[in-house]
């Protein structure tokens, strides 16, 4: 049995395949996901599972060197933005327009869809190295 909190085999496999600078997206239930992306759909119903719970679990396995957030999160969901940034005290945060974020998602190795309904609850995690 795995030692970390992450039990979802698809997410664990996606992280295991990632290299330096590869990207993984965790999104709310409304973000459009391209057919070409590997979609890991965890959404059960509105709010389940929550975005932050999924993020926290992914962070038990993924080394992150940079994050991307939609610029709009600052105005529309400031509490969520603060909660996200708190998890990355030493990590560069790049704010981009939501439309640019949606375009950038297309390059993610996988997209994890949550049941989150908070506006702009989307993050792109750029993989770092552990050595």
SSE map:
Blueprint: H1 9-17, E1 23-27, E2 39-41, H2 51-58, E3 64-70, H3 73-76, H4 78-86, E4 93-96, H5 98-105, E5 110-113, E6 123-127
Parallel strand pairs: 1-5, 2-5, 3-4
Antiparallel strand pairs: 1-6, 3-6
Q: Which key features would you list for this structure?
A:
single chain, 29% helix, 21% strand, alpha/beta, 131 residues
Quick structural gist:
With 131 residues, the protein is an alpha/beta fold.
Structural account:
With 131 residues, the chain is α/β, with parallel strands linked by helices. It is built from five helices and six strands, in the order αββαβααβαββ. It has a six-stranded mixed beta sheet with strand order 2-5-1-6-3-4. The longest helix is centred in the N-terminal third of the chain and has 9 residues, at 9-17. 34% of the residues are buried.
SSE order in H/E notation? HEEHEHHEHEE
Number of helices: 5
Looking at how many chains there are and whether they match, the oligomeric state comes to single chain
Average pLDDT score = 97
Instruction: Please give the radius of gyration in angstroms.
Output: 14 Å
Strands side by side in the biggest sheet: 2-5-1-6-3-4
Q: Which sheet architecture does the biggest sheet show?
A: 6 strands, mixed
Question: Which geometry do the CA atoms define?
Answer: globular
Fraction of residues in helices? 25-40%
Total strands: the figure is 6
Task: Return residue spans where pLDDT drops below 50 for at least 5 consecutive residues.
Answer: none
User: Which strand-content bin applies to the residues?
Assistant: 15-25%
Give the structural class: alpha/beta
Query: What is the terminal-to-terminal distance?
Result: 25 Å
């Amino acid at each position: 049995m795995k030692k970390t909190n992450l039990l979802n085999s698809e997410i664990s496999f996606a992280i295991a395949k990632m290299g330096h600078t590869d990207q993984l997206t965790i999104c709310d239930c409304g973000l459009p996901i391209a057919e070409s992306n590997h979609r890991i759909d965890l959404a059960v119903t509105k709010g389940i599972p929550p975005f932050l719970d999924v993020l926290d679990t992914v962070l038990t396995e993924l080394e992150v060197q940079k994050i991307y957030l939609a610029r709009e999160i600052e105005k529309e969901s400031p509490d969520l933005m603060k909660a996200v940034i708190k998890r990355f005290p030493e990590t560069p945060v790049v704010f981009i327009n939501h439309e640019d974020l949606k375009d950038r998602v297309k390059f993610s190795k996988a997209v994890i869809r949550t049941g989150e309904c908070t506006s702009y609850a989307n993050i792109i995690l750029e993989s770092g190295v552990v050595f």
